[in-house]
Design brief:
Order of helices and strands: EEHEHEH
Radius of gyration: 12 Å
Strand content: 25-35%
Number of strands: 4
Helix content: 40-55%
Strand order of the largest sheet: 1-2-3-4
Structural class: alpha/beta
Length: 92
């Protein structure tokens, strides 16, 4: 189970994912991020205390980082994944 929410802020759009980031929800999250990025406003993706993630979810994180989506993590393992996925290999 997962939940995706979106908050429009003056300077960016914040998309939050809670729960699981598995192959069956990757398309929803990526589509949401792509739609918001098309508006020209910066997109921030908050991965908040993910309970599980599979290879499709890890690939999504890498793709979104490459596309310029700002990744924010909450939780030890999620923070590690975001740091490992950033282009510089450092905490964004």
């Amino acid at each position: 189970m997962f939940r995706v929410s979106k908050v429009e802020q003056p300077s960016c759009t914040m998309i939050t994912v809670d729960g699981q980031l598995l192959s069956d929800c990757v398309e929803v999250v990526e589509s949401c991020c792509d739609q918001e990025a098309a508006t020209g406003k910066p997109v921030h993706l908050l991965l908040r205390d993910l309970t599980s993630i599979d290879e499709a979810g890890r690939s999504l994180i890498r793709r979104l980082a490459t596309k310029g989506v700002h990744l924010i993590a909450r939780g030890v393992y999620t923070t590690y994944l975001v740091e490992a996925s950033s282009p510089t290999g450092k905490k964004p």
